[in-house]
Design a protein that fits this description.
It is built from 22 helices and seven strands. The chain is an alpha/beta fold and 441 residues long. The strands form two sheets. A four-stranded parallel sheet has the order 2-1-3-4, with helices on both faces. A three-stranded parallel sheet has the order 6-5-7.
C-alpha cells in the first residue's frame, strides 16, 4: 500500500548519466509522464517556479484534463522553465527518496536538458552567456571593461544585445572589473599557525568563482578580511576553472566534466596540504558539495573535496562553536532583510548567515525564504525575464514591508535582481561585507 509522504530522512540518488538508458528519449518521456502525473495529483509546488504552472495549465487545457492528454512534444515547455533551484526537492515534495515513488524533479529536468543539449537544441546565445569565465576574462580587459560597463547601461546597445544574445534589455547586468579578485589578492599568503576547531583546520583556500573574480571582487576581499580577523590562514586558489553550474543548467554535462577535471587537481592539492575550501557563491559551493559528487559518486578525490568544502557562514559558525569567532564588533547593523539563497538552503546547513549576523549587537534579521527567480541566466534571458520578475515580486514586497537599513543575500546575483526590482536606487550588500562593516576593518 502506498504511503502518503515519507517520515524518513531524504536521500539523493547518484545521477546515472553514463548509462545508455539515461539518454534514451522514449525512456525519458515515460519517466516524465510518470512524474508529471504524480505532480498533477499533488500540486504542492505550484507557487515555487514557472515549471509547475506551465505543467498544470497543459494538463487542465488537455482533452482529458490528465497528463495522458498532454502532447509529449510539450513536455519541454515544463523543462525549459526549470532552473534547478532544487527547492521542490528540498522543501515541498513528500515523495522524494526513500519514498517508493522516488521523485527527483530537478534531476529529471536535468536529464531532459542534457538530452536536449546533446541533440543540438541549445541556442548559441545560451552557450555563450554560460561561458562565464571566458566572458569574464574578455570583459575585464582594461579599456574593454569601460566599454562593456558603459554599453550595458545604454538603451540602444541593450536593444542590440537583446536581439543578438537574447538578454532582456531591462535585465540588471553585472559590472566587470579589470582589477579582479585574483589580481588584488595575488600576494596573499597563508602564513602563521592554524588553530583547528570542529571539522575546520583553521586554514582556508578560497575558490574565488567567476562572479567573485570578475564582477564582485570586493566580496572576496571582504571574505578574506573577515577570515583573517578571526585568525584563519587564507590563500586564493589559482588557475581555477568555472565550477560548472552554468553548464549544468544547460544540460552540458560533458563540459561540466571538463571543468571538474581541471579543478580537481588544484582542489585536492589544497586539501592534502590541510586547507579547508570555501567559495563565496552558494551555487559554486553546491556544485562541489552535491552536484559533482552525485555525477561522479566513485571519485574518491572528489568525495574528499566535498568533505572539505564549506559555506562561508557555516565555517564561521563552526569557529564560533569552538569559541574562536571574534565578536569585537564596532558598529551595529540595525534591521537587515535577508533573502535566503536557494542553493544555500539546499545545502541543509541551517540559517548560518542569520546566526552570524545576529551576533552583531542591536541587529535584527528579517528572514525571507523565497526564491529570487534569477538563477544566473534565467533572470536575464528575454524569454524568461518576465517570469523571473514575477517570482521575485513576493521577496520585493517583504523587503519593502520590513523597511530595513540593509538588504542582503548570500547570492549576489539574486540580491542584485531583487534590488533592481525594488527600484529605490539602493544596492544589495553581501552579508560577509556587512560583517566586515560591523567589525570596522
Amino acid at each position: 500500500m502506498s504511503r502518503e509522504g515519507s517520515l524518513e530522512a531524504p536521500t539523493r540518488h547518484p545521477l546515472d548519466w553514463k548509462s545508455e538508458d539515461f539518454w534514451n528519449t522514449d525512456s525519458l518521456n515515460h519517466e516524465l509522464e510518470r512524474v508529471f502525473d504524480l505532480c498533477h495529483g499533488c500540486r504542492r509546488c505550484v507557487s515555487l517556479c514557472q515549471s509547475f504552472p506551465v505543467l498544470f495549465d497543459l494538463v487542465d487545457n488537455s482533452p482529458t484534463m490528465e497528463v495522458d492528454g498532454v502532447d509529449k512534444a510539450d513536455y519541454m515547455k515544463v523543462v525549459d522553465q526549470c532552473y534547478l533551484c532544487d527547492l521542490c526537492y528540498q522543501t515541498k515534495c513528500p515523495y522524494i527518496p526513500p519514498h517508493e515513488w522516488n521523485i527527483d524533479f530537478p534531476h529529471l529536468m536535468l536529464r531532459a536538458k542534457a538530452i536536449k543539449h546533446k541533440n543540438g537544441e541549445t541556442s548559441a546565445s545560451a552557450k555563450l552567456i554560460s561561458n562565464t569565465r571566458t566572458v569574464g576574462k574578455l570583459a575585464s580587459i582594461p579599456v574593454v571593461v569601460e566599454a562593456v560597463n558603459w554599453g550595458n547601461k545604454q538603451p540602444i546597445v541593450r536593444s542590440v544585445i537583446e536581439k543578438t544574445l537574447d538578454v532582456h534589455r531591462d535585465a540588471q547586468l553585472p559590472e566587470y572589473h579589470s582589477k579582479t579578485a585574483t589580481k588584488l589578492l595575488r600576494h596573499l599568503q597563508a602564513d602563521g599557525p592554524a588553530v583547528a576547531a570542529g571539522p575546520t583546520t583553521g586554514k582556508v583556500a578560497i575558490f574565488v568563482t567567476c562572479y567573485g573574480d570578475y564582477n564582485h571582487p570586493k566580496m572576496v576581499e571582504d571574505l578574506v578580511a573577515v577570515l583573517q580577523h578571526n585568525g584563519v590562514q587564507v590563500k586564493i586558489l589559482k588557475k581555477e576553472s568555472c565550477c560548472g553550474m552554468p553548464k549544468l543548467e544547460l544540460g552540458d554535462l560533458d563540459t561540466v566534466e571538463k571543468y571538474k577535471d581541471a579543478n580537481l587537481p588544484i582542489l585536492i592539492e589544497a586539501v592534502n596540504e590541510g586547507f579547508d575550501l570555501i567559495a563565496p557563491i552558494p551555487s559554486c559551493v553546491l556544485m562541489f558539495k552535491q552536484e559533482l559528487p552525485l555525477m561522479f559518486p566513485g571519485d574518491e578525490k572528489l568525495q574528499a573535496v566535498k568533505r572539505a568544502f564549506f559555506d562561508p557562514f557555516e565555517y564561521l559558525m563552526h569557529r564560533h562553536a569552538a569559541g574562536l569567532f571574534k565578536t569585537d564588533f564596532k558598529s551595529e547593523l540595525g534591521k537587515i532583510a535577508w533573502q535566503v539563497a536557494c542553493h544555500q538552503r539546499v545545502q541543509n546547513i541551517g540559517p548560518k548567515t542569520r546566526d552570524v549576523l545576529n551576533l552583531v549587537p542591536n541587529t535584527e534579521v528579517i528572514t525571507i525564504e523565497r526564491c529570487s527567480g534569477h538563477d544566473g541566466t534565467y533572470g536575464v534571458k528575454k524569454d524568461t525575464y518576465a517570469f523571473a520578475r514575477k517570482i521575485a515580486k513576493p521577496v520585493e514586497t517583504r523587503v519593502k514591508q520590513a523597511d530595513p537599513q540593509h538588504f542582503t543575500s548570500d547570492c549576489v546575483m539574486a540580491g542584485a535582481h531583487i534590488a533592481h526590482g525594488l527600484g529605490d536606487g539602493k544596492e544589495a550588500e553581501h552579508p560577509i561585507s556587512l560583517i566586515r562593516k560591523a567589525y570596522g576593518i
